[in-house]
Amino acid sequence: MRETDIAKDPDLQSGGRQWFEPLVYSVGRPALKFAFMLVHDIDIAEEITQEAFARAWASPGTPVDPVQFRRWLYRIITNLACDHFRRERQVAAQAPSISRPLDPVTTAEARSVDESLMAALRSLSLSERQAIYLRYFEDQSFRETSRIMGRPQVTVRVVVHRALGKLRQRLEASGQNRMVAV
Question: Do residues 103 and 125 make contact, with C-beta atoms less than 8 angstroms apart?
Fold first, then answer.
């Protein structure tokens, strides 16, 4: 939506949020996938995505343009994922380790994916996972990936290059040398 559209739309002038629902429908699924790639837990990914949309709804500065909205939302998701890991480290330091059994759906999903690749992806840092996901799973350009991550394009290229090297090493070490050349 362009600024001229906003000026003509009485709902937007009066603070209406009718423009928000189409953005949620268009970005909701990719946002959930992005959050899942960062935290590797569907329940936490859903919570993070929901919280990100709630914050977007409540903020008066939410971008209306779909491209800017997506960038902005992904930054919120990244920040929420960082907050999650920070809280998780604090809880882990204070409480004894408790493992919970996987439900059957999660177990089936875990078997259906390439476990070696998932293990290799999990071993990457948060920013490396974010860059790899945006670049290769969402097919974003380096320019767009750098905008979403809020980092210079050169830095993102280096992060992706190093992350791919780590993935190759880990997959070769696990006997999985069928990684697609990128």
Answer: no
